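tool_call: predict_structure(chain=1)
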Amino acid sequence: MARRPSESGGRELGTSFPASSAWDKLGFLLWHATLEWQRQVSAALKSLDLTHVQFVLLAGTNWLEQRSGPPSQRELADHSGTDAMMTSQVVRALERAGLVRRLPDPDDARVKRVSTTPQGADLARRAVALVEDVDRRVFGEVDDLDRLRIALRSVAGRDEFGRPLAGTADAPGAGAERAGATRT
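tool_result:
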C-alpha cells in the first residue's frame, strides 16, 4: 500500500516538516548531487585502480608540489579536506604502490613531506583528465558554471586557491586548538 502524505504534514506525530518536497531543498539536492558525482568519479577511477580518496590525495600532492614544493602531510590533509589519520594511512598505501614518497622535512623532524614519483605524477595527470570528463558530463547543463563555482567555494569556505575564507572555522587563527598540534 502506497503511503499518502498526511494533510497535517506530520504534525500529529509531533513533527513539523515543511509542506514542500525534500527535492526542493538545496541541502538535500546538494547531498544527492554529491552522491551521484562521487559515484561517477569512483567508476571512472576504477579503470586506474584508484579509489576516490587516493585520487584526491595523489592529485592534491601533485598540485601542491607544483606550486610550492612537497607539502607536509598536514598541508595535504588541509588542502584535501581529509583528517590527518586517514591522510597518513592513504599516503602510506600510495607510497607502497610507488606513487608518492614521504620525505623528512629538513627543518622539523616531526614533519613528513609528500612528493609524487614520476609514476605517481603520470597517474595523477591521467586521473585528473578522467575526473574532468566526469565534471563536464555532470555539470554540462549548468548555464553559469562560474556562478556555481563561486557559490560552492562560498559554501565550502575556500577561495580559488583552496585557502580558508576569513571568518570560517579553518581560517588562520580561528582554531586555537590547532596551535599546539603536531604537524606531520
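agent: Confidence is low (pLDDT under 50) at residues 175-184. Proceeding to next step.
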